[in-house]
Amino acid sequence: MDSLGALALATEPPKKDLLKREPYRRDEYIVSRKMVKHLLGNAVYQIAIIYAIVFGGEHWFPEPEKQFENPDSPGHVFPGRPYDFDQSPLYVLKEPVWGPSRQFTNVFNCFVWMQIFNMLNARKINDEKWIFGGIFDNYMYVVIWFIIVAGQIIIVLFGGVAMKCAKNPSIAGVHWGIAIAFGVGQLVWDWIIRWIPDTMCPEFGKKQKNPLEDEQNSVFIIRKKRTQSFSLRQPASVNKEGSGRQASLH
What we know:
Blueprint: H1 2-10, H2 33-60, E1 69-70, E2 73-77, H3 95-98, H4 102-121, H5 139-158, H6 173-193, H7 219-249
Antiparallel strand pairs: 1-2
Helix pairs in contact: 1-5, 2-4, 2-6, 4-5, 4-6
């Protein structure tokens, strides 16, 4: 998925607005404030959802299949963790009979759908509020996006033991709806992040000193000093030559 996503974004054609962007300084931080804002902001959203399903899904994540529900919390998914927090066995007893965990299949599905929709956010990197602008100008991006969507559906439905996805039956329709809803929520969350000022975020990476601002190493400063030195010596040499010529004439 990462390779296809990178390929899709790499096919984005250049825009005229790119010519209006100021050039980056050679001494800029490696990780800018805007990068930190989006990396940490989206990570908070995704980690919160994944952790909520992994460590608390048996209390709120729905399970329409009665045979796979949690007996301690009817109507909810059976926990897919091998052991509970007190080291008592959980899914390790069910796995030989049920196969791959339905809870962890949903974790995988929700995570991938958040990445799929986050691909749309990645199209605009300067906090533009409308991320769908010009999306159909790049047909390659649209095709690859749908290929990833189709690939995810095939993996979850037919991956089985090879991809450690639940089978016989696979996850329910409500599970697909929840995963896609979390993906759409990624768009809303990133739209909110775009309103946060970059100045509120830190920068990372070694900031190198601009050599042009260093008076000792600046090429322009060295040239300036040499020019001044030459201009100071030039009149003296001219006067000496002039006095010598006058003496010869006399």
